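Case study B.
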Amino acid sequence: MKHFRILLNPFEKLSEYAALLVGLAAIFPLCLISARVGGMFCDIMYFSGNASNIPITKILALYFSMYILTAMLFWGFGKLLSKSRVRLIDVFGYVFFAFTPLIFVPVCFIPESSRILLSPPQQFSPEWWNAHFTLPAKILVFSSVAFFAWSWILLFNALKVSANLGGWRLWLSYIGGMSLSKILTETYIFPAIIFSPLAYCAQNYTPLSPSASAFGMYEGALNFPGQTLRFRLYIDDGDKIKLHAASPDQNDSRISIENFNITRDCLRFSIPTLRVEFDGGFASEDGTQIAGIFSQYAYKIPLKLEKKKEYNYTAECALNFEIGEKILMQLKKIFYSGDFKSEILSELNGKHSKAPLRENSDIAPEIIVENDIKLTLDAGKGIVSCTSKFAGAAKLSANLAAMKLASMLKTKNSGRPGEMGSVPLGKSLVDLNKNTGKTE
Amino acid sequence: MSLKSKLPSHCPSCECPLHISELVCKKCGTKVSGTFPLPPLLSLSCEEQNFVMDFVKQSGSLKEMSKKLGLSYPTIRNMIDSIIEKIKIIENSEK
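Model:
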């Protein structure tokens, strides 16, 4: 019991200098293991972040900044609320020491468990856990929470001893210091460290040449601290220019951009609901590149988008259906060369799922894919109810992202591209033999 | 030297502060009667009185106290601060 107490509060006996040395010494292995595992372990709210794209020097700077900021805040609260003389060395030494248990957290994520960091799911469902983790790995990952808790208790006692606080003053200082540290590091300090000042320098924008077209789909990568997200910008022509944004790594659903300004010199848009802003312009005369600064919350990220090339493909399709009715759907021999990820959206028994075309032949056994393909079936206005000869596929759900792809599909029958986007799925691709199930 | 038994500072019956009513000279037996308040230091606990004694003997050095007691510097400082607080309260209550 006595030893247990010392584990939670060693500061009554531990010298402040020794504590500082231990804390400093622990940062380096913590950084090395974090870089190895590919995750940042600043606190439990942030432990699932992917640090695989962050250099080790920056990981070191991130940990240092968090330690120093927390110590400074504790010291500030101590100065304000304590009647004792609060020394900086006491607070720094004990706070640095209190973060030491974090060194055990990345160990819990080695090696099998590190996949949680490298490809975190949108939602941590029981199925996802069971599919990706063995029982020992699960126990190991969850045990990491204990080390966070240990660190928090040590921080609490570090503040208590170094600032001689008690009662509401102690709790106020602890909660205030921890919360402010969290807010300031994540909103200001981390972005400032991760994105070098060069990122904020003006980009070289090139006005679009009069002959070039800005319309099309542009894609780039958003390197957030902790994860990289693909970002797509759709600039569509029509009665009036329309902009849409989507991220294939986050549902891929298109978000309409209402606030935008696009000229040959600049491109600006904002999505207020997501607190997203983009300020940039074309980076090449031919309109194949867009560059600028993507801002979300306090993050300012340089974003370079490249126009995707026209797709080269041929397709043979045979569909028999009517919107709202049960249909028989067959897709045959779609040959496509492009760089889309292959997946098909399906809705089966009320559950939405994504399945790679190549791997799940139950859903679309007749699709033959060359290279990577993203085929998304679009019903125009929602879900097409259908019965099909594909085992298990009760419904194929629509995805707006497919509109563009679909509009470019050439069919064997019509030989004309472009009809798919304006009429319901299938009618432009195939002849309709309602309920016959026969194909061309 | 450590204090083995503590002079009671409060009445065990009503818990009011006790006062000294008589002082005796061990050599000649002279007795002085009156009402004398207890010095604040005597109102501290035995451990606290011992701590104060040690602190004075270490010339008031927190570092030396830290070494002597095997406790950290902030802990020693906190102990002194709590004794100071206590003495202030005792002094105020006497006023």
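The longest helix of chain B spans residues 73-94. The remaining cases will be described in the next quarterly update.
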